[in-house]
Amino acid sequence: MTQKEKLVLVGNGMAGVNAVEHLLKLAPDKYEVTIFGSEPHPNYNRILLSYVLSGDSKVEDIVIHPYEWYRNNHITLYTNQTVTGIDTAAQTVTSDKGVTVSYDKLILATGSNPFMIPMPGADKEGVMAYRTIRDCEIMMESAKKYKKAVVIGGGLLGLEAARGFLNLGMKVDVVHITDSIMDRQLDRTASKMLQAALEEQGINFLLAKQSAEIVGHKRVTGLKFKDGTMTEADLVVMAVGIRPNVELAKNSGVTCNPGIIVNDYMQTNVPNVYAVGECAMHRGVAYGLVAPLYEQGAVLAKHLAGVETGPYEGSVLYTKLKVSGVDVFSGGKFGDEEGTKAIRIHDEFTGVYKKVVIKDNKIVGAVLFGDTADGTRLMQMIREETDVSGMAKTAILTDSASGGGAASGVADMKDDAIICGCNGVTKGAICSAIKDQGLTSVEEVKNCTTASRSCGGCKPLVSDLLAFTLGSSYDKNAAKESICSCTEHTRDEVVEAIREKGLSHVREVMSVLDWKNEEGCSKCRPALNYYLGMISPETYKDDSTSRFVNERMHANIQKDGTYSVVPRIYGGVTNPTELKRIAEVAEQFNVPTVKFTGGQRLDLLGVKKEDLTAMWEALDMPSGYAYGKALRTVKTCVGDTFCRFGTGDSMAVGIELEKRFERLNAPAKVKLAVSGCPRNCAESGIKDLGIVSVDGGWELYAGGNGGVKVRVGELLTTVKTEQDIIEYTEAYLQYYRETGKYGERTSEWVHRLGIEHIRDVVENEEERKQLCDRIEQALAVTKDPWKQAIDSKKIQRDLYEVVELT
Fold it and tell me: Is residue 37 part of a domain?
């Protein structure tokens, strides 16, 4: 048996691990692989950190390669260890924990470091970068204590950080040195359109400002500019760029200027030492976008596998992503330079802007805002220097230019065209997987290749590739999306089987429907538990082991192992007696932090697990379900009770709604709001259901969302009375419960089903009555989980008592 060569990868990030993954597919038995990572996590998608910061995703949701992947591929992984020395003569690496490993081939994928502006006060407490999961955790901790954040840098990273702070309830300023945000990726028109969209979300921009000094004593209190003005700040985040992380390479005799110098096969000047990713400098360029890094990794993997490959000759830069819910794309040279002409489409009504720059009858650059469907095709034309002299110029921005719709559009792409920029998946890889693995749906392609697993922006192209590869046998409208990789069954098939076969518990569903993984997973088990309870509310016994830890404990676990307790405050309206009781309980249990939430409630943070049930009993208030896929809050303004503009009693309506639906389980969290007039102080337009008082009645807005994927609610219906509000809300929520996918917010559900369809259902008197009857059955059997835990010694013993090990 041939002895395997030893391959060591320094850096557990996206570029390096992707290269190793590619290498293992080409030559699975050639190398014994060891990977060192400085962070205490497996390989994760840094692009999606903003989703973690905003609370829309957890750390485990953005992991690309879980620990099982390393084990299954026999990779030795050292996390939380930084390689501090390389002996290039002995061919060994040594970590800061004293681990020494020998290598035959060494890949340096040390990435980059955030650039920190060397200004006075930059070393103060509260000044930080935004680059890692730990950075996200610090930001989230800060948001619990402080009110105002300032982000220096109006690029993608800075904007996503700002959006995250908004979601965390902080006010935020974005400071940028020029007068246009994302000026390296967008032209001025697209930049101003993006700025307007983000200002509507609540971000304040301070443009054409040069930072001069961070002020404050020990901790930052503000940022001073060179023009003499200043802005207050409790936290300053610098997102102004990155620098290749080359200290290790430089100390080991590897040539750097400023990145690690590599040739077209990613080789350094030292034998058997390679570099890939943001740390590498190729032909004078260090790339900071994921697609070029994956292109580098593909060449490196083939070279190490001994497979014939052409050289890496550099990349044409492009960006296709979502910035706080807005689709943007840019590629090539999109500025109005001498000798260029541009084709522009600017639709101010729909918020769509498209620009293609042409020079010498070739497309050299493009900017798309609001609709990026043409991005991949235009990028291919830029790369291939396609002659467009024979094309109708207005057709360049439509699929008609390719001569026959979406399928022919992807047919013209080369196999190495990157379809999924987030995960570096090419057309060839997707088509091969479809053929070889018999894939028939976007969900199956996602599970097999990771294409569309991140932001999901490439799903339409993946669907087009399925149509191109499978031909008439592929039905785009009937494409199945299984609820997880444990099964081929869709949500609708599972729900139908539960109803038809009378299935009554989670394991029975998995057994009868031939689950691939008989234990299920963290995605399907909670979903099955919800569907069973939704279908049979009166008879189903909830399976707490199939719930996430927060729902099982009925409190949100914090990073230090303590919990947060949020009692129910109906409609955000309380009284002195209740407030006094909360304060006394907080003192009794030494609660370190009490915070007002964005939903007009009080959050008691830092509670020990063993104190939870005693605290709940002392509070004598119902659970606020701040942890659950259920009704969270009903936000209200003061309405006509106090406000001179008010036309409706928003507080009374909000309290009635919250008391009616306070323990209602749903596919995802649900937030309501009631505004007493069209001034909309309760932000009803961005809630799952928003109610607004107008002359002569109330307007109901459905499917709003104030998170990363911001969505303004659509008018569902207008009603006359407060009783009508309750009835239509019952029908709307029950229809969502019955047709929504587990984990799907109403914003996604309304978009998927269409507001017209949902309106037809809830305005149909017979259907509305039936939905109201079914939600009544579900509400009739709900019980307050805090009260249940207080009354049950078994629950206290099983979940909340701390067992000391001796």
Answer: yes
In a domain, 588, yes or no: no
Per-residue pLDDT at 197 exceeds 60: yes
**What number is the average pLDDT over the span 416-440?**
84
Domain boundary among 202, 223, 243: 243
283: confidence class by pLDDT, cuts 50, 70, 90: very high
At 476 the pLDDT is 61
Residue with tokens 């982000």: 151
Same domain as 388, residue 460:
no
12, 104: one domain: yes
Confidence of residue 302 (pLDDT cuts 50, 70, 90): very high
Closest C-alpha among 517, 440, 439, 452 to residue 485: 517
Q: Which domain holds residue 180?
A: 115-243
Q: Are 11 and 52 within one domain?
A: yes
Quote the number of domains for the chain: 6
Q: Which amino acid is at 787?
A: K
Cite the annotated binding site for [4Fe-4S] cluster by residue number.
Answer: 637, 643, 677, 681
φ/ψ of residue 721, rounded to 5: -115, 165
pLDDT band at 456 (very low <50, low <70, confident <90, very high): low
Q: Which residues are annotated as a binding site?
A: 637, 643, 677, 681
Residue 287: inside a domain: yes
- Total count of residues recorded for the chain: 806
Tell me the binding residues for siroheme: 681
Task: Name which of 581, 589, 584, 586 is nearest 611 in CA terms.
Answer: 589
* Helix (H/G/I), strand (E/B), else coil: 220: strand
Compute CA distances 708 → 173, 467, 720, whole Å.
17, 31, 34
Q: Is residue 755 part of a domain?
A: yes
CATH at 327: 3.30.390.30
pLDDT for the residue 477: 54
Do both 11 and 90 map to the same domain? yes
Q: What is residue 62's DSSP assignment?
A: G
Mean pLDDT score of the chain, rounded to an integer? 90
Please indicate whether residue 415 or residue 178 has the higher confidence score (pLDDT): 178
pLDDT tens readout for residues 236-254? 999 998 999 999 999 999 9
Residues 130 and 213 in one domain: yes
Give the span between the Cα atoms of 496 and 505, in whole angstroms: 14
**Distance between alpha carbon 399 and the CA centroid of its chain, in Å?**
29
Co-location of 210 and 358 in the same domain: no
| pLDDT bucket at 132, cuts 50 / 70 / 90 | very high
Residues 645 and 761 in one domain: yes
Report angle CA 322, 326, 330 to the nearest 5 degrees. Answer: 60
- CATH code of the domain in which 147 resides: 3.50.50.60
* Full 3-state SS string of 251-313: HCCCCECCCEEECCCCECCCCCEEECCCCEEECCECCCCHHHHHHHHHHHHHHHHCCCCCCCC
Q: Which residues pair with 85 in a beta bridge?
A: 94
Backbone angles phi, psi at 795, to 5 degrees: -60, -45
Domain boundary among 243, 276, 295: 243
- Which residue did the predictor score with more confidence, 371 or 602? 602
Q: Which of 54, 238, 255 is nearest to 154 (CA)?
A: 238
Neighbouring C-alpha atoms within 13 Å toward the C-beta of 646: 19
Residue of higher predicted confidence among 406 and 11: 11
- First and final CA of the chain: distance in angstroms? 49
DSSP 305: H
Residue 578 burial by Cβ neighbours in a 10 Å radius (0-12, 13-18, 19+): middle
Residue among 208, 207, 231, 205 nearest 220 (CA) = 231
Q: What pLDDT is attached to residue 1? A: 55
Q: What is the pLDDT of residues 691-710, one digit of tens each?
A: 999 988 999 999 999 876 77
The helix (run of H) or strand (run of E) holding residue 763 is helix 755-763
CATH number at residue 737: 3.30.413.10
Identify whether residues 468 and 503 lie together within a single domain.
Answer: no
- In this predicted structure, which of 76-85, 131-140, 378-387 has the lowest mean pLDDT? 378-387
At 458, is the pLDDT very low, low, confident or very high (cuts 50, 70, 90)?
confident
- Return the CATH number at 458: 1.10.10.1100
